[in-house]
Amino acid sequence: LASGPAVTSAARHATAWAALATAAQSLGVGLALLDRTVAYAKQRTQFGSAIGAFQAVKHRLADVLVRLEFARPLVFGA
To answer: Less CB within 10 Å around the terminal CB: N or C of the chain?
Structure first.
């Protein structure tokens, strides 16, 4: 098995790329899930209204969007 500073450097580089790929994938999955959740909230009704019309639901979805949008430049800038 190889060893030495070159191998250590290559392993660190590969780990950094893997972390970036994981972050990018997580961001994409989060955005896709938010889209699906918003579509569901518009379709699902409770008490005669779409659940997306309720302020509590809107605020929770808005919080998720804000967190994802804050993560986007971190991933793109990495």
So the answer is: N
For residue 8, name the pLDDT band (cuts at 50, 70, 90): very high
**CATH among 3.30.1050.10, 1.20.1560.10, 1.20.140.10, 3.10.20.30 for 5-77:** 1.20.140.10
For residue 50, give the nearest of 35, 64, 40, 59 by alpha carbon: 40
Indicate the DSSP class of residue 78.
Answer: -
Per-residue pLDDT tens over the stretch 12-54 = 999 999 999 999 999 999 999 999 999 999 999 999 999 999 9
**Residue partners of 37: CB distance under 8 A and separation at least 6:** 61, 64
